Amino acid sequence: MVQHVFRIHGLPVDMVSDRGPQFLSQFWKAFCTLIGSSASLSSGFHPQTNGQSERANQDLETTLRCLVSTNPTTWSQQLVWVEYARNTLPCSATGLSPFECSFGYQPPLFSEQELSVPSAKMFVRRGQSTLRRARIALLKSNSRYCRQADRCWITAPRYRIGQRG
């Protein structure tokens, strides 16, 4: 956590975690107390408790499934590009990517510069292709989620000042 999360994003106010033994330990409870963070546990066998993480995992899984359908053994090599695509894709609510919200700028993608080293050229081309396909899959996935949400959408009732019941 310190190496991969805190050093980049700072100390959290609250950490929601599953009921894994590492999150139930005395060490973890004491650690959270010492850093001034509360530790919340999700309900057992109820992943919806941590809906934000579950939704992010669902997006990653859907996108990976699209990318590796022809060669499932490559999922671990594709994951980094799917993560990069997700983190650089602007969100409709803010118009900013998660990366831009966290760091204040949109990271560069790929240069159009020609490379003379064939292995580097091939690596970059594969990365570009994967990133392009991942972004397309994420956009399709988001579109599907929006259509699904729109089907369940209802107009909020209008309330008047002083209205009861």
Automatic annotation (TrEMBL):
Top-rank taxon: Eukaryota
Transmembrane segments: none
InterPro entries the UniProt entry points to: Integrase_cat-core, Retrovirus_Pol_polyprotein, RNaseH-like_sf, RNaseH_sf
GO molecular function: nucleic acid binding
Entry protein name: Integrase catalytic domain-containing protein
PANTHER family, sorted: PROTEIN CBG26694, PROTEIN NYNRIN-LIKE
Gene3D superfamilies attached to this UniProt entry: Ribonuclease H-like superfamily/Ribonuclease H
